[in-house]
Amino acid sequence: MVVCGLACWRCRWLLPLLLGLAIIMGIIALAGRGWLESESEPYVQQASLWESCTRGEEDLNWICESLMDYGWGRAAAATYLVGFVILVICFALAVIAFSIEILRFNFVRGIGGLLFVVAAFQIIGLVIYPVKFTEVIPLTGDNMFSWAYGFGWASTVVVIGCAFFFCCLPNWEDEVLGNIKPTYYYSSPERAPYLN
């Protein structure tokens, strides 16, 4: 019977795998044009982390304006991007930590601390963007923060979860490495007559 709990040697790659998933979601958020979109037809508003685009109800061409012309746009993009770069570094460190026997638990807790820094940077960027966007950019029609913005938050939630696990994992070092001897419970026939 195979048991794979929280601290299991066979399950050690789950945390780097989750960090890889957070990286993929971060890439989608950085490249996606769906941070803000029109909620219903006519679709006249669309924005990414980098630019805001509008068009007339009958016009097929988008007119785009760079958000990098605004201080808050640069701040939102920079904080989210810095968090993403640190996340990629944490992923590389996690792969190294779980691949090399000697280094594994020496800096796992440090990776967890860095992941909290990643989450802080990403949350700052994800909060600056909608607050300042709705204050500064004139919105046309009914709009919603859409799928790419959601991927940014999903990446941040996964990073926060991984940060907690990386910080707590050294507490179960012996269980993960298999250094604990199994406990056998045996009672002699004299002490347990009902077993006869």
Automatic annotation (TrEMBL):
Keywords: Apoptosis, Cell adhesion, Cell junction, Cell membrane, Cytoplasm, Membrane, Transmembrane, Transmembrane helix
Signal peptide, first to last residue: none
Pfam families associated with the record: PMP22_Claudin
One CC-aspect GO term: cytoplasm
Bilayer topology annotation: Multi-pass membrane protein
Localization: Cell junction, Desmosome; Cell membrane; Cytoplasm
Transmembrane regions listed in the UniProt entry: 12-32, 77-98, 110-131, 151-172
Entry annotated with the keyword Cytoplasm: yes
GO biological process assignments: apoptotic process; cell-cell adhesion
Family that this chain belongs to: Belongs to the TMEM47 family.
Protein name from the UniProt record: p53 apoptosis effector related to PMP-22
